[in-house]
Each structure stands twice: as C-alpha cells, then as structure tokens.
Design goal:
2 copies of one chain form a homodimer.
Chain A (H helix, E strand, L loop, with lengths): L3 E8 L1 H4 L2 H11 L6 E5 L2 H10 L6 E2 L2 E2 L3 H25 L4 E4 L7 E5 L11 E6 L1 H9 L3 E4 L2 E3 L5 E3 L2 H12 L3 E8 L18 E2 L1 H9 L7 H13 L4 E5 L12 E3 L2
Helix pairs in contact in A: 3-4, 6-8
Chain lengths: 260, 260
C-alpha cells in the first residue's frame, strides 16, 4: 500500500516576524491537503529581545552561541511567543494545531553539542524523533507546530537549528509517510544573483551543488541549509523544495527543487 | 464502576520561581499515584521581565491588567520559559509531561473579559475545556502541564487566572474521573494568623467561610482563590486541598481542606 503523503514546512524567522508574509503563509498552508507539520525559526525576534535586555547576541559562522541567558530568551520567544501566536492563528483557520518543544511528550531528544574548537553553549544536536507520538497526533487530525527548542532528557533545554529540526523530523516520519519538505523564506529559491529573484536555480543535485559552491553561487548560510536538505533526501524524504510560501499551494511556481 | 482517581495540582509563581521549593514540588509530585495534571502560574517572573522591558505592571484588585505588551510578556514567560522548564524537569524524572497553552489542541477556549467597570485588557474568561483531548493524553500516560494562557478560537491569545484554570479543568474532568484538586503555595493552608504557620484553619465549609470572611480572617487574594475552589466543589470535584507541596504525598499533614 502506498504511504500517505505528509507535508513538512519550515518557515524562517523572517516570515514569522512579518505580518504580511505570515498572512500569506496562512493562506497557502491552508491549501495543503492531508496531514502537515510546521517547524518555525524566529531568530530576529530573539535577537531584538536580547538587545532590549542588554544581552549581546553572539554568532560564530552564522550559528548562534547559546549561553544560559540566551537560552532563556530563545525559550521565551520561540516556545512561548512565536509558537503560541502561530498555533492560535492556525486554530482560527480551523486547523487543530498543537505547539511543541522537544521536551513536550519527549518528542525531540537532543544532546548538548560537544565542544571541539567552538563552544556553542546550550546548542542541541538531535538524537531522536518520537515518530509514534507525532504519528498519533496526525491520526487525530492535529497539526504539530515545532519550535526549535529541544531537551536532553536530563532536564536541560537546548537550542536547536530549525532547518535541521525540520529535516530530521521529515526523515524520521518517512518511515510511515511519503514526505515532502518545504523550506520557505523570503526568496524564490536558491538564486544565481541574490538581487535578482528571476535567477532561481531550479534544480540542484549532488553534482551541480558542488559546482555551484565552487563557482561561489552558493555561499554562507545557504550551505548549511542545503547540506541539511540533502541529508533529508538521503534520510528518505521524497522531495525537498526551497522558495516563497506561495509554492505550498502551487509547486509549478518557479523555485528550487533538490534531488540526489 | 468507580471512576479512576485524577490529581490536579496548581502551583503558584512563588514556587515556580524558587529552585528549592520547585525541587520539593518535584519530589512530592512524583509520589502521586495515577494520572495527574499540573497547572502553573508565574506572576513574579513576568512582572520582573516587564520591569526590565520598561513596562509598568498594572493590577486592579490583585488581578493583572493585560495590555498588548503585557500579553506578549506573559505568553513568553508562562507558555515559554516556565512551562518548558517544568516539562523538561518532569521528563528527567521519568514523567512524560506535555506543556500546553489553551490554544494547543484547542484545549481551553476563552473569551476576552467583558468590560464592565474595569477593562482588564486581554484577560480571558474560560468557556470550554476540551475533556476528550485531555483524557486522550492521560490514557497515553502523559502529564499535561498547563500554562495560564488561553485563546478565543479567533486567533487571540488571552491571559487567564491560573487558580481559575485549575478549578475549571478539575470540574470538567470530573465527568470522567474522581478528581482531587490541590492548590500549593508557600503557606501551610489558610492561616488565622498569617505569620503563624501553625494557625491553619483545617476545614472550611460554606458556613464557616462566611464567618471567617466577616471576622477578617480571610481577606484579599485568598477570597477569589477560595471562591474559585468552592466553585470546583460545586462543579463536581471530590476534594480540594490548600497548603504546602508536602501534602501531595501525604494528605494527613496539617493543611486546609474545603467542603460544601
């Protein structure tokens, strides 16, 4: 028997923070048929609150360093403010959303990142996705909405990269579902020219990915995102798309599709 | 067939904020047999964050006035920071906790308090408890942990009194369970002399309650708490206890028990 389709959507902080883009997201997500899972980031809002509280945001290679004070801020902003805002809006649209951190129902277990050259503090690397619990929620017609806060099972909350979280959830759920993963952000996809939204690289595979990196077309923050997306494909995810929220309701729109 | 016992525990912000009292709470809650539900407040921490952000906390008759900025703060602190901290610690103790705001799974529906003489802003008065969803969680051995943030089903989050939330959940669950409700705080119960922990009024019923109010023994914030607790009894709750967290594992310890 063919597996049921499951849509996993990751929306970045740039969408969650912007009322116009968020409204557009809600419009398109409601056109997705079948079960779905939402994973959100929220970096800008957390950085703004840190500044208001006099905590200087620290990043190394584009990744946040999470000290104890920063962990409190991201737990408040991601698992509290943004997560509950998304859930309440989805409920208003008739979508029975349930907001989750990794600690809730022990749904995402992680460990504090091992210090090699860089100490990322309370950064969590994912060990385990509780497929059964997520499956039970989907069976009762709920839409899980994940904030990128996880836990180690020993009482410690951890800050986890939302792109990675979405990829790991999608891979894990591939055991039971035919999974399609969307990374939605404010660009139409991976662009050859970052200032030209028409310069979308429509298909990226493991071969031209290497070439695009060598040419300097794919740089900086896009590299870990695509590495993570490729890991999702090798992990059993059927399709990975990157682009605007509009592609949720229409995948024939120009965007980037990944394949191995 | 006799209904299964269900324990509902409300812990105030004074416990959630205090590492020693919180450790004691965890010790005693783990000795509770059978399914349980936890409801937490968190007022002090929210007020502290408000001050850090330059928002002046407003209260009328001991009840917080929730303007838009305050709603953001309580959503962050209650539904984010404190809720996830409690859940991760319970997970570490082997308790499969799941943190919930009222929006999650549409579990607590409320409406914005009608303005009569006082405008409490985004204060939520509870309309509906989703008994079926809570029951499903309990059947799968989960411990729901409620933050006092609710929603109106139209996309608006609301700030709800945690004492009332605990009472309404306990009353609603009485349909399916034999419910016992505990209000845990930093006193041994209702005290005749607020400075003497041995002056506990051990039994309060509707008759001596009136008298105790007339004598001025019960005043201020204790009145709405006890009114709410009596509503729980009339709503079908079997037993209501008020006192230290120690009573969770031993109800023979001196504390206040309510009866009609």
């Amino acid at each position: 028997m063919a597996k049921e389709k499951l849509t996993i959507v990751k929306i970045g902080g740039d969408i969650v923070d912007n009322d116009v883009l968020l409204a557009s997201f809600f419009q398109h997500i409601e056109e997705v048929n079948g079960p779905k899972i939402i994973v959100h980031g929220g970096g800008n809002r957390a950085s703004a609150l840190q500044k208001e509280l006099g905590i200087e945001p620290k990043k190394i290679d584009g990744r946040r360093v999470t000290d104890a004070a920063t962990l409190e801020v991201v737990t408040m902003v991601y698992a509290g403010l943004l997560n509950k805002k998304l859930v309440s809006k989805l409920q208003a649209l008739g979508d029975n959303a349930i907001g989750l951190s990794g600690a809730d129902g022990d749904v995402i277990r992680a460990h504090k990142r091992i210090v090699k050259t860089v100490d990322y503090g309370f950064a969590g690397d994912i060990d385990q996705v509780n497929v059964r619990f997520i499956h039970d929620l989907l069976l009762t017609k709920k839409t899980p909405v994940f904030s990128p806060i996880t836990h180690d099972g020993k009482g410690q909350l951890l800050n986890t990269n939302a792109d990675t979280l979405a990829a790991r959830i999608a891979s894990a759920m591939s055991l039971k579902y035919d999974t399609e993963l969307f990374y939605c952000f404010t660009k139409s996809g991976v662009l050859r020219d970052v200032n030209d939204d028409n310069s979308v690289v429509e298909d990226i595979n493991v071969h031209n990915y290497l070439q695009l990196k060598q040419e300097g077309v794919i740089t900086d923050g896009m590299i870990p995102k695509l590495d993570t997306a490729f890991e999702a494909l090798t992990g059993g995810v059927s399709q990975v798309h990157l682009g605007l929220v509009d592609i949720l309701s229409n995948t024939t729109l120009k965007h980037t599709t990944l394949c191995l």
